[in-house]
Amino acid sequence: MTTGLAVACRRVVHIYRAEAGDVVALAGVDLSIGPGEMLALVGPSGSGKSTLVALLAGLMRPSAGLVNIGTYDMGKLSDKEISRLRGTQIGVVVQNATRNLLPYVSLRRNIMLAQRRAARTKGVKLDDPDRVLDLVGLGGQGNAAVDTLPPGARQRAALAVGIAAGPGLLLVDEPTSQLDTGGRDEVVHALETVNAERGTTIVVVTHDGDVGARLGRAVTIRDGRVGAEGRDGQDFAVVAGDGTVQLPPQVLERFPEGTLFTVVQSDDEVSLRAYVQTPAH
Ligand SMILES: Nc1ncnc2c1ncn2[C@@H]1O[C@H](COP(=O)(O)OP(=O)(O)OP(=O)(O)O)[C@@H](O)[C@H]1O
Description:
281 residues, Rossmann fold, seven-stranded mixed sheet, four-stranded antiparallel sheet, 13 strands, binds adenosine-5'-triphosphate
């Protein structure tokens, strides 16, 4: 069984330098994910989810802050070290299943190609490709060509390629966006099976609230920061590393910028009381 890798982000900032001006995509993300945990990243379009995943995958370096995967500081590794990690310890499944797969060769061949780098690494014991296919519910389909599979199976084939090398961290971008309910359930079930059998830490970017709920922990990214967290069906506000807490959007709609609040504290409760000024006559 693989050992899941822990993830720790501390005050992570990412700025895209564009001709039209700099874009602050991440503005101080603090996030800890335990080894073997499953987590969904949710949030509005443009909030920074894909940027965060790209940093976890080592596809980009943070502009500031720390991104640690297991014992690795992703901001400090060389390109070569990062590329080795991605071939062995970090599995990445990008959006749109076919972009992860070679369409005209068999599923088994796709998996063997994804295992090439790990197979050259000393001490790594790889699962047989047929066993990898079993894990995602595609047992017995090793000879099928990717382009003959229906969309849900193709997405699970992409997952199989992502876990082929036995990574401790699996990053998956929007795995259910083009699937019907049945296809979505099979993909979530495949993720749950990989997590249960291998202990792999799994991070899924999704717009689908149901997927977030099924994974048990859903972190909302809002304006480049952790805006809220859902656990076991309950929503929570989160204290960031700099001591700030984002209020839910529906609260912010009622109380515009500059609204004053009194913080009311008792032994087991902290609440906010808005201070509404009476207009001067
Ligand atoms: N290569 C880039 N150059 C400049 N700005 C970028 C680049 N990539 C993303 N951005 C900007 O960074 C911010 C965060 O984008 P990101 O793609 O991480 O958000 P997202 O939450 O994944 O969105 P979506 O759900 O639409 O995929 C957005 O304002 C986006 O326009």
